[in-house]
């Protein structure tokens, strides 16, 4: 740890802790940082206390020096008074610095971590405002394109040059991976697009990396300065070598639509073909709530900054929820769009600029945030690359979300009561990801493009879309009949009968082709040597089960029941749950239905359940079965509903987050009590209903043999298992790249679980996203899994992948994969091992 220490003195404890956290992350804990902030007064906690400041200085005192940074007013007086309490010999080594709190702290810790002396550290802190002046455009440079670069002359700089080979270059998802990887290292990472002759930019800024305009074939110069420069460059080089994981991704690109040259007919609108298919339905206009931003003076800029931080934190939670739902709805590949949005909210350049605007200009959070977002959006629009220009939609999407939260507005409701064509100026990626394809039959907008993220999501959802039509469409009354052809890029308002007949015929032909394509998905998944593997669906609603059955699901391997409990003010009743479970089972028509009991708590709190304490590590906290065992009445209500629904259906119960045998036994005791109560009341249920567990905690793998003796089946949840095995939060962009279910450590966990299950004579499935990755199919077959459960859209592809392999070759691939030393090497192995079937 660097010898020079930093003390942050502020009227606001929250602000000081936030600054400390930000500064500490910059140097990975190499510098001692203490906080003296706020006062012990619940009515008015803002203030400073000289004794607190003294104690903070004493706690980190170093003979090499202590730098004290203060916000304003009494903070300076408290700091001066605190120094007088120190012994005279120590007073000489404490320095009060007038540098700006946030930028000064970051500059100071970076300089201290680099081994500079106290005077150099002070100089760096004082120079932070000059850096920000350049960054904010005072010297006429866009916010996101130029950042003052300071390097540590005592550390050598390593450089590499790389050619970008993935098809779309550093678009949002690869850029997010680049930034997350760069942020893992202590070294300063700088990058320049040599092909476009750009300036050097910071590698830890999502906007700066994205706006380099990196496309396929471009050459980049990446420089790293610091103690782990070689390791950092090696990690970045590995990303490029693996094409950012896009080697085997079948991109959902704009289809090569055929534009038929026909005369314009009455009521016809011409636009951009964005998502194929025909839709004929009444229109419903969508007009997002407009948020008017008024700039005004604030007396307490610290409070405004805290208000902005709170909105950003809530926005982050909302986007994580969108990501989770989108993963189920459209798969992880396309849902990764929202990873970039999360990184946008953590961009240090952006946050620092917004903070400085509030502090320097004493303006409200809305005005500061809008100004900074506008600058970033302008930087994107100024790029020559049209694909990257379109990424501005993600910037605007995130920006509006934060503004909406600052304004206290509720999220827009895009849930339609009856099927319709949605007409709008534009749809954000968040809007589109939340659409229900059974209700939104088509999309018609006046802006957008076929390569926008919204268009990509629409294609994945199978919703026909025509974009960029004339603005007159926005004046249509709700209920007006419209027809659109997403293949030719045309739409018709109140189409004439001959047009309707032609489109209806095309729609029928399209649907027939889709049905034929899905028909193979309704066949069993059988390997080339005759082994059948069940392919089930992961669902989270009644609508999902209908899509699952249409896609060829042989059952439901995971019904997430959380949707019944969230977004309400009280828990669902037994009758409410019973109706939903029965409705889903009815659609499945005697196919298996595995219902996972409530998996909330910790990172997914219920507003009507008082936790009573904050959790520092919610993923390791009070969640899953732990929550349910502590709330037996809530648990019993759900068990009663599941048992009652089991009559005449193939329903199984699955317990989440099992870590111990004791938990399983405790849950079975409660289940037994519920069964006894139902018997006593003369209420029917399936007494032979099977009970299984999710294997998603490493301890469950370690004692899988003991757990197998207690239950009827296992289902491996590789999403959670991967993050627990790798000790990495999959929702944290800085470490999410470590959470890879193809890592040999995770695959060995899967192998151990399968072996224990089969030794005990019980079946074992896998319901994590790994199951939907067709690259992993031979490994999962080789490891001996009995069933795979995936998002409904992935079922046809997974079944086709299973049919391409035989068990013997799959076992050989799996055995070799277990001996690799990284997920990247596993992917390379699969790519070289798989040969097209004869």
Give an overview of the whole structure.
This protein has 838 residues and is of the alpha/beta class. It has 33 helices and 24 strands. It has an 8-stranded mixed sheet with strand order 9-16-15-11-12-13-14-10. Helix 11 runs antiparallel to helix 13. The chain is globular and about 85 Å long. The chain starts with a strand and ends in a 5-residue tail after the last helix.
Mean pLDDT: 83
Biggest sheet character: 8 strands, mixed
Number of helices: 33
Distance between the termini: 60 Å
Across the major sheet, the strand order is 9-16-15-11-12-13-14-10
Q: Which structural class best describes the helix and strand composition?
A: alpha/beta
Count of distinct strands? 24
The dominant shape is: globular
Beta-strand residue fraction: 5-15%
Which keywords apply here?
838 residues, alpha/beta, eight-stranded mixed sheet, 33 helices, 24 strands
Sequence-ordered SSE layout with sheet pairings:
Elements: E1 2-10, H1 13-27, E2 31-37, H2 50-60, E3 66-70, H3 74-85, H4 88-91, E4 94-97, H5 101-113, H6 118-126, H7 128-135, E5 157-163, H8 172-182, E6 188-193, E7 201-202, H9 206-210, E8 219-225, H10 229-241, E9 268-270, E10 272-275, E11 278-286, H11 301-330, H12 332-335, H13 337-346, H14 348-361, H15 365-381, H16 386-389, H17 392-407, E12 420-424, H18 429-433, E13 440-445, H19 453-461, E14 465-467, E15 481-485, E16 490-493, H20 497-519, E17 534-539, H21 542-550, E18 556-560, H22 574-588, E19 593-596, H23 625-630, H24 632-645, E20 651-655, H25 661-680, E21 691-695, H26 698-702, H27 704-708, E22 713-716, H28 718-725, H29 744-759, E23 763-766, H30 777-782, E24 787-790, H31 795-803, H32 807-817, H33 823-833
Helix pairs in contact: 1-5, 2-3, 5-6, 8-10, 8-13, 11-13, 11-14, 11-17, 13-17, 14-15, 15-17, 21-22, 22-24, 24-25
């Amino acid at each position: 740890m660097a010898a020079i220490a930093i003390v942050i003195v502020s009227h606001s404890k929250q602000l000081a802790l936030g600054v400390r956290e930000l500064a500490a992350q910059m140097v990975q804990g190499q510098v001692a940082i203490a906080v003296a902030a706020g006062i012990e007064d619940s009515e008015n906690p803002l203030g400073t206390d000289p004794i607190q400041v003294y104690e903070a200085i004493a706690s980190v005192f170093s003979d090499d020096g202590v730098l004290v940074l203060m916000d304003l007013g009494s903070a300076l007086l408290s700091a001066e008074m605190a120094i007088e309490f120190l012994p005279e010999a120590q007073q000489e080594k404490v320095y009060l610095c007038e540098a700006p709190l946030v930028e000064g702290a970051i500059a100071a810790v970076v300089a201290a971590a680099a081994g500079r002396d106290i005077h150099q550290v002070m100089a760096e802190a004082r120079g932070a405002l000059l850096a920000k002046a350049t960054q904010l455009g005072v010297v006429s440079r866009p916010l996101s394109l130029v950042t003052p670069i300071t390097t540590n002359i005592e550390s050598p700089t390593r450089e590499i040059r790389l050619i970008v080979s993935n098809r779309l270059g550093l678009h949002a998802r690869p850029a997010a991976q680049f930034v997350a990887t760069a942020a893992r290292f202590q070294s300063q990472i700088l990058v320049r697009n040599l092909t476009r002759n750009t300036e050097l930019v910071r590698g830890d800024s999502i906007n700066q990396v994205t706006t380099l305009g990196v496309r396929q074939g471009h050459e980049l110069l990446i420089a790293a300065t610091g103690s782990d420069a070689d390791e950092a460059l090696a990690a970045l080089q590995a990303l490029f070598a693996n094409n950012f994981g896009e080697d085997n991704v079948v991109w959902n690109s704009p289809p090569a639509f055929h534009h038929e040259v026909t005369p314009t007919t009455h009521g016809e609108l011409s636009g951009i073909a964005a998502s194929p298919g025909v839709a004929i339905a009444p229109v419903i206009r969508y007009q997002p709530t407009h948020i008017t931003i008024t700039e005004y003076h604030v007396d307490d800029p610290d409070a405004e900054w805290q208000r902005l931080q709170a909105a950003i934190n809530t926005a982050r939670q909302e986007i994580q929820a969108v990501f989770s739902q989108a993963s189920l709805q459209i798969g992880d590949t396309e849902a990764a769009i929202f990873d970039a949005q999360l990184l946008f909210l953590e961009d240090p350049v952006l946050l620092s600029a917004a903070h400085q605007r509030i502090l320097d200009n004493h303006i409200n959070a809305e005005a500061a945030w809008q100004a900074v977002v506008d600058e970033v959006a302008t930087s994107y629009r100024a790029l020559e690359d049209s694909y990257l220009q379109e990424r501005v939609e993600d910037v605007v999407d995130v920006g509006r979300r934060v503004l909406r939260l600052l304004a206290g507005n509720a999220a827009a409701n895009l849930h339609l009561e009856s099927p319709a064509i949605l007409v709008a100026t534009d749809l954000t990626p968040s809007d589109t990801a939340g659409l229900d394809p059974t209700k939104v039959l088509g999309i018609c907008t006046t802006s957008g493009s076929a390569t926008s993220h919204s268009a990509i999501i629409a294609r994945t959802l199978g919703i026909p879309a025509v974009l960029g039509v004339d603005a007159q469409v926005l004046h249509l009354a709700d209920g007006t009949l419209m027809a659109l052809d997403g293949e030719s890029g045309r739409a018709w308002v109140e189409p004439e009968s001959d047009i309707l007949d032609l489109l209806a015929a095309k729609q029928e032909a399209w649907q027939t082709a889709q049905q034929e394509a899905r028909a193979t998905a309704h066949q069993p998944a059988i390997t080339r040597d005759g082994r059948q593997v069940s392919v089930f669906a992961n669902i989270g609603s009644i609508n999902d089960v209908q899509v699952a059955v249409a896609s060829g699901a042989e059952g439901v391997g995971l019904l997430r029941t959380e949707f019944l409990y969230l977004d309400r003010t009280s828990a669902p009743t037994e009758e409410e749950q019973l109706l939903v479970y029965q409705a889903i089972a009815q659609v499945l028509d005697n196919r298996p239905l595995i219902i996972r009991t409530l998996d909330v708590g910790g990172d997914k709190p219920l507003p009507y359940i008082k936790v009573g304490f904050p959790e520092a590590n919610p993923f390791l906290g009070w969640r899953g079965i732990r929550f349910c065992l502590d709330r037996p009445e809530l648990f019993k209500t759900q068990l009663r509903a599941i048992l009652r629904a089991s009559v005449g259906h193939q329903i199984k119960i699955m317990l989440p987050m099992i870590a111990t045998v004791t938990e399983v036994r405790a849950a079975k005791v409660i289940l037994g009590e519920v069964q006894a109560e139902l018997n006593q009341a003369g209420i029917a249920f399936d007494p032979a209903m099977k009970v299984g567990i999710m294997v998603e905690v490493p301890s469950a793998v370690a004692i899988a043999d003991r757990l197998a003796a207690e239950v009827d089946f296992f289902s491996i949840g590789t999403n959670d298992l991967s993050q627990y095995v790798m000790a990495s939060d999959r929702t944290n962009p800085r470490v999410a790249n470590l959470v890879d279910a193809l890592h040999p450590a995770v695959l060995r966990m899967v192998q151990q679980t399968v072996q224990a299950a089969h030794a005990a004579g019980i079946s074992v499935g896998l319901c994590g996203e790994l199951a939907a990755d067709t690259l992993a199919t031979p490994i999962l077959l080789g490891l001996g899994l009995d069933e795979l459960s995936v998002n409904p859209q992935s079922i046809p592809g997974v079944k086709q992948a299973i049919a391409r392999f035989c068990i013997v070759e799959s076992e050989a691939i799996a055995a070799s994969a277990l001996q690799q030393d990284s997920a990247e090497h596993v992917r390379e192995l699969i790519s070289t091992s798989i040969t097209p079937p004869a």
